[in-house]
Design goal:
The complex is a heterodimer of chains A (289) and B (472).
Chain A lengths: L9 E7 L2 H5 L6 H12 L4 E7 L6 E6 L2 H5 L15 H5 L7 E5 L1 H12 L11 E7 L7 H11 L7 E7 L2 E6 L4 E5 H5 L19 E4 L8 E5 L2 H12 L3 E5 L7 H23 L13
Parallel strand pairs in A: 2-4, 4-5, 5-9
Antiparallel strand pairs in A: 1-10, 1-11, 2-3, 6-7, 7-8, 9-10
Chain B lengths: L9 H9 L1 E5 L9 E7 L5 E8 L6 H5 L6 H7 L6 H16 L5 H26 L21 H23 L8 E2 L2 E2 L5 H34 L2 E4 L2 E4 L10 E2 L7 E3 L12 E4 L1 H4 L4 E2 L18 E2 L1 H4 L4 E4 L4 E2 L2 H9 L5 H26 L15 E11 L2 E10 L2 E8 L1 H12 L8 H6 L22 H5 L1
Parallel strand pairs in B: 8-14
Antiparallel strand pairs in B: 1-2, 2-3, 4-5, 6-7, 9-15, 10-13, 11-12, 15-16, 16-17
The chains are: A alpha/beta (289), B alpha+beta (472).
Chain lengths: 289, 472
């Protein structure tokens, strides 16, 4: 215990003050609002976000350069979205100089690796202006999420309005008001195998990381981690983009975030140790310690 | 000047004995490895010069056989990192010429932008390489482009900014400034966004001002050098002949900016006029170095007693056009298309500077008509029936011709006739009459890029490959 939440400058519970953003946001609309503000202020000139793909709830990463485009990416899609794949193209045929990117902890790790060792990523490192991380316990492939929704929950993907994971349940809400909550025991076997080596729950390497855990419904927990993140976050607060509450005053608060982070890390450490015994050199170094 | 085609001719050996032989190896301030073997008279004037590539053979043409037509241009690009864009574009277009595929207009515009961006950066880079040969006007101080002192510092910064602009435009239009990823057989993978288009436009506008300034600066220092009677090399004052680098060979260029291909209505290059000769037939036989100058920078010339055998050591073919070596490059382009008539090394340097603004004007012109929403990939990409196709691309240092045969999507035959390969024998002739100490300056006028010039696939009179014989 102790290092689960990584390094951060401040932590608050926050939500966007923009009704349009919050209307379709997963929780507090933090990512969309932060990117919209950064776009408006010229802090970034485009952001790699997750939009809708060619099938319902299939994510498609794309480069949003306007508020309208950003708004189409609101809400969480619980399956793999290869956002980092666009990071080079954003600086090439899109001609962006200041790129924002949102991603899971593993994607934040990739972004930082690009900046440290820019092999095949010439002129990319200095163009990453804002990296927003989202909390992640594990991710699913599209086929898995389809099976969970269509077979286990018995709903059509097309009719689903929202999916959430929280309070020990994977919940599916449909347009016509059906709500199906599946215990996480069921979703476990659908988790991506790769997620079991991850030792980061709260996107330690991002500039700002956010997720629903720890805050009340409709709010998000926000960690401001870097100098750059702090600069942008403070400006956004000053501009009235977010309403905030001290994290100590909200329920369930940081205690739950720490607990879940510990659970993930501890569980995956056991798996990693097991993997280390598979053969020579199969063990992975923990990049967060 | 005569060719030693007969190895057993006793006259040849006699000729060797009469001249002093000096060797500069390796030559410096250009890309790749090459050396100069010079026969000089008692006054140190070159009577015969052989400039040859000693970069090891890459074998790209052999590697290409059997690969897909998409792969080969990417491999061809890797022959060198200085003008990979020329190789990518020439290779892609030779494939397109073989399969007879025309690319959409916007794809072509992106390729021209990429081409000009590369040329812009390459000219600026060459400025850094030749500045140490030149003097600060009004002084006897040579220019050190790396000094922190003014006025050189400002020039160095301007050069770097021009290179940055060229490379950034190249990155946007081509995906990468070095080894561009965006061009493909049939067009381009992606068009640029409107935002990117205006970014290129802004950069080109900024570059245009800098390029004009840089061109004027370079022409001033080159003209200043031209007026001088001597230049200092290795602590000695070497007289500068007024005819430095003159030769009587012809010029070859296919376009002032871009290039030509066998798909064109009026192709500007003719493969029937090209014959490849073996280095064996062209270069000197074995010679012994019998003159050395330890003060020659850097580290002196090759030691007396060392043997040199240019015929064997040269790692290039000798392409001829109408039976003669020709000059390719900026001066050839300006001579062929813009009635430029200044000869010699100085003429070459001036011509290169004059291409600066052309690069940016062309970029701006293309951006004016580029449609960022336009199609950049041909609807139908034929897989090829093995017909012969060629494409010439005007690389920064000259005409880069690639020839190919593609059948069912696979490359059956591939050949690269790269700029410096054309220039090797021509520059060798241009050395005659110059003090040997200035020989490197003469070859630098060609902005040589030796790596890609290295080839051993040579055909004899019956068009049979004879390279293997030489390599044994």
């Amino acid at each position: 215990m102790g290092m689960e939440l990584g390094k951060y400058k401040t932590c608050v519970s926050a939500r966007s003050t923009d009704k349009e953003i919050v209307a379709k946001a997963q929780d507090g609309g933090i990512v969309t609002q932060l990117f919209a503000f950064a776009l408006e202020q010229g802090i970034i000139d485009g952001a790699i976000v997750t939009g809708l793909g060619d099938r319902p709830w299939k994510p498609r990463p794309f480069i949003a350069t306007t508020r309208e485009e950003l708004l189409t990416s609101r809400g969480t899609k619980y399956n793999v979205s290869p956002n980092v794949a666009w990071i080079k193209e954003a600086t090439r045929s899109f001609g962006l100089d200041k790129v924002g990117i949102v991603g899971t902890p593993c994607q934040m790790q990739a972004v930082r690796k690009v900046q440290l060792y820019p092999i095949g990523m010439r002129d990319v490192p200095d163009k990453i202006a804002l990296a927003v991380g989202i909390f992640c316990m594990e991710n699913f492939l599209y086929k898995s999420i389809q099976q969970l929704v269509e077979d286990h929950a018995g709903q059509k993907m097309q009719s689903v309005k929202k999916m959430t994971i929280g309070k020990g349940k994977f919940s599916v809400y449909t347009e016509r008001g059906n709500v199906v909550a599946l215990p996480l025991k069921i979703t476990e076997k659908y988790e991506q195998a790769g997620c079991h080596v991850c030792l980061d729950y709260v996107a330690n390497l991002s500039d700002v990381s956010t997720g629903s855990v720890g805050s009340p419904d409709g709010w998000s927990t926000v960690f401001v981690r870097t100098k750059k993140g702090d600069h942008i976050w403070s400006k956004a607060i000053a501009a009235g983009c977010f309403e905030t509450k001290p994290i100590e005053e909200v329920k369930p608060g940081l205690e739950l975030v720490t607990k879940l982070a510990h659970e993930k890390i501890h569980k995956n450490e056991i798996y990693l140790n097991k993997r280390a015994s598979y053969g020579v050199g199969k063990g992975l170094r923990n990049p967060y310690i | 000047m005569y060719l030693y085609s007969d190895m057993n001719n006793p006259m040849r050996n006699e000729a060797i004995q009469l001249s002093k032989v000096v060797e500069i190896s390796p030559t410096t301030r250009h890309e790749g490895h090459s050396k100069l073997v010079l026969k000089v008279n008692d006054s140190g004037i070159v009577e015969r010069g052989d400039w040859l590539s000693i970069t090891p053979v890459r074998g790209v043409e052999k590697l290409a056989i059997g690969k897909t037509m998409e792969q080969v241009p990417k491999i061809a690009s890797r022959v060198c990192g200085i003008c990979p864009i020329a190789h990518t574009l020439a290779a892609i277009e030779s494939m397109e010429a073989s399969i007879k595929c025309e690319v959409p207009k916007d794809a072509h515009l992106l390729r021209v932008i990429l081409q000009c961006a590369n040329r812009l950066h390459s000219i600026a880079l060459h400025n850094v390489l030749i500045l140490p040969d030149l003097y600060i006007p009004g002084t006897d101080t040579k220019i050190n482009p790396f000094t922190k002192e003014e006025p050189v510092r400002t020039v160095a910064k301007r050069i770097q900014r021009i290179r940055e602009i060229g490379q950034t435009i190249g990155e946007i239009a081509g995906g990468e400034a070095i080894h561009p990823s965006n061009p493909r057989v049939g067009g381009m993978y992606r068009n640029v966004t409107e935002h990117a288009m205006w970014k290129m436009y802004d950069l080109a506008k900024e570059g245009l001002v800098l390029a004009h300034e840089q061109m004027e600066f370079m022409i001033a220092v080159i003209r200043n050098f031209q007026k001088r009677d001597w230049t200092e090399i290795g602590g000695q004052q070497i007289p500068i002949p007024k005819t430095l680098g003159y030769h009587n060979q012809g010029y070859m260029a296919t376009d002032p900016i871009y290039g030509s291909s066998s798909l064109d209505e009026h192709p500007t290059w003719n493969p029937a006029r090209w014959i490849e000769t073996r280095p064996w037939d062209w270069y000197m036989g074995q010679v012994e170095i019998n003159y050395e100058d330890p003060t020659y920078p850097v580290g002196g010339t090759t030691k007396v007693g060392t043997k040199a055998w240019p015929q064997i050591e040269a790692c290039t073919g000798v392409p001829t056009y109408d039976g003669q070596p020709v000059e390719v490059g900026p001066r050839a382009r300006l001579t062929m298309f813009k009635n430029y008539d200044e000869k010699g090394t100085i003429g070459q340097h001036i011509a290169r500077q004059m291409e600066y603004p052309d690069c940016l004007y062309s970029i701006i012109k293309c951006l004016d008509i580029l449609n960022p929403n336009g199609k950049v990939l041909a609807d139908n990409i034929p897989q090829g029936d093995g017909s012969f196709g060629w494409a010439a691309n005007e690389a920064p240092r000259g005409t880069d011709v690639h020839l190919a045969r593609v059948k069912d999507g696979r490359v059956q035959w591939f050949e690269m006739l790269v700029p410096t390969t054309w220039n090797f024998p021509t520059a060798s002739r241009a050395l005659v009459g110059a003090p040997w100490q200035l020989a490197e300056m003469v070859i630098r006028g060609y902005d040589p890029c030796v790596s890609c010039a290295t080839h051993m696939i040579v055909v004899d009179e019956d068009n049979r490959i004879v390279a293997q014989k030489l390599m044994q």
